[in-house]
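Changelog-adjacent note: as of this version, every example in the card shows the full chain rather than a window. The one below runs 367 residues end to end.
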Amino acid sequence: MLKKSVLLLLSAIILCCTLSACGYEYMDIELNRTYTKNLAGSELNVYNWGEYISDGSDDMMDVNREFERITGIHVNYTTFESNESMYSQLKSGGVSYDIIIPSDYMIERLKNENMLKKIDVSRLQNYGFIYDEYKSLFYDENNEYSVPYNVGMVGIIYNPELIGEPEHSWKTLWDEKYRDMSLNFSNPRDGFMTAQMILGQDLNTTNKADWDAAAELLKKGKGVLQSYVMDEIYGKMETGEAAIGPYYAGDYLTMLDNNEDLKFFYPEEGTNIFVDAICIPSSVKNYDAAMLYIDFLLEPEVALHNAEYIGYASPNRAVVENPDYYYYQDEILYPAPEDMPPTQYYHDIDPEIRSYYENLWIDLKLY
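Full-length structure tokens:
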């Protein structure tokens, strides 16, 4: 009798988990296209940034679970913390991915190294929702290898309760007043950018002397820093362990939910603007499922949940033009033309120069 009761209880638990994905309640999504279950039972390997997809928390959509429910395709989802770490993993060939979401300059590099599969955008029924201004950019001029996912700029997050109001400049990261309270990026491209902007450099310079000068400036500021970070900045800024550091505007809005004292500015010298886009690696195993996944991410309702969860600017007009969008006309994500800082995109750089600045970065970390 006891065994029967246990079996009944287990059956109830399994049924509950099946119906609500063990705590997550599926949503009644209004979809723009029809999705079949022709690929049900197959698997899709997705490699994305951390905190970069709506995951079902805070009563929001769990995008991957909804995709699994609608298509029957199982999503294996893993994350990376920088374009460079993603590239290394992809280059090693140890794991095969069907979807990756790199930034513009890394897309250009992957394309140049024949590491991307072409995307037939004519098969994407939701591609028309992408604004034309985010199509045909330098890294994918013919829209063959990528589909825009998010747009952003880099700025500085600070806690005025701990340090007051800083100068709105990259120089604040070098200011002795903030010794052991300031942070900087732990990846070379963004880290060098903070110095290059102060020096008035082209972020894509091929002059080694420019990179030397930026490296020297970073060395001078290293003693002020508490640490170099990527996603570790969340915990440090939200808890007050650190008081000032650079990061992506969308992530600031996420941190603000957990610490309302935090503020943000775009430095007066200018900053990096970027587009992160969905790509299919050349090592893809499930191309058709990858195409379905891309179209699903472009669905207006799915894209809205993603944009609200992630906090980045959206390239999807169905999101941006929706007055119910949480960040509708937000001045940080969508600044007015007169409030836009000077911006530069990162481009893929000549391999010799890239190797040169990466070695300078290693030296900096060891300094």
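Structural remarks: Residues 1-21 have pLDDT under 50 and may be disordered.
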